Amino acid sequence: METCFLLCTFFLSVEVPVWVLFFVVGVISNKDVVDLIGCDNYNIRIHNILLVSVYNANEKCGTFWRVRNAFQYLEKCIKSVQFLPSKSIEECLEIYVFPGIAV
């Protein structure tokens, strides 16, 4: 039996599906996420990891492809931690996710 991999990351002490985080910062399609990750989606193993990651994000967040839903999911997760950040979620995103990009 093959091990199932999926793409998740930790943000402010909570595990977040990478797919959700991409949509929180404004990516608008699954294809754009794949392009930003920069992987060869013709490799079936990579394709399966990406597909499982999308299903995982959908299972945890529902309609994550809508920026507001993805943001609300992230906010709910962060507010469930014991030590809340002193800054707003928006400020944390600006500081910790792609800090070198000026919007």
Model description:
With 103 residues, this protein is mainly alpha-helical. The chain has one domain. Helices cover 52% and strands 8% of the residues. It has five helices and two strands, in the order ββααααα. It has a two-stranded antiparallel ribbon. α1 crosses α4 (67-79). It is globular and about 45 Å long.
Give a quick summary of the entry.
With 103 residues, the protein is mainly α. It is built from 5 helices and 2 strands, in the order ββααααα.
Pick out its properties.
single chain, 103 residues
Number of domains: 1
Distance between the termini: 45 Å
What is the alpha-carbon Rg in Å?
14 Å
Specify the structural class: mainly alpha
* Series of secondary-structure elements, N-terminal to C-terminal: EEHHHHH
By DSSP, the count of extended strands is 2
Number of helices: 5
Biggest sheet: strands, sense, closure?
A: 2 strands, antiparallel
Across the major sheet, the strand order is: 1-2
Uncertain stretches: none
Percent of residues in beta strands: 5-15%
Approximate shape: globular
Helix content: 40-55%
Q: How confident overall, as mean pLDDT? A: 82
